[in-house]
């Protein structure tokens, strides 16, 4: 019998419920514990012993002094990931930014193409596309800064 089951039999808790006990339930537990100690008998409930959590093993392959003190003798071999080959897109033009006139008639410099999300110098389009928030394909893009009158 657990503490909760004993309290449920006394009418101080719900059987099978979870959470904290009420103040009255805790007082009843302390009183029963004191009565059992005075009579030199074990309490009517048994202590629930939780199993120890399994220790996670690191993936370095080395056992540290702390792990030895915790009873870990050997860890798994480290996982080696294959290096990813990064392919660079060659530059298609020397310009690093372009200009767009937005809907409020302001000149905005852009550094990335709205169509392919690459920098202006590595954009795969013949002419970079403005981002959607600046009008997208409908907005003209130029490499020379336009003069707004």
- The portion of residues forming beta strands comes to 5-15%
Spatial separation of the terminal alpha carbons = 87 Å
SSE-based structural type? alpha+beta
Q: List the total number of helices.
A: 3
Topology (elements, then pairings):
Elements: H1 3-10, H2 23-39, H3 65-69, E1 98-101, E2 107-110, E3 141-142
Antiparallel strand pairs: 1-2, 1-3
Give a structural overview:
The protein has a three-stranded antiparallel sheet, with no helix packed on it. Among the domains are: 1-54, no CATH class; 98-142, no CATH class. It has helices spanning 3-10, 23-39, 65-69, and strands spanning 98-101, 107-110, 141-142. The radius of gyration is 36 Å and the shape is elongated. It has 149 residues and is an alpha+beta fold. The chain starts with a helix and ends in a 7-residue tail after the last strand. The protein contains three helices and three strands, in the order αααβββ.
In brief:
This protein is of the alpha+beta class and 149 residues long.
Q: Which properties best describe this structure?
A:
149 residues, alpha+beta, 20% helix, 7% strand
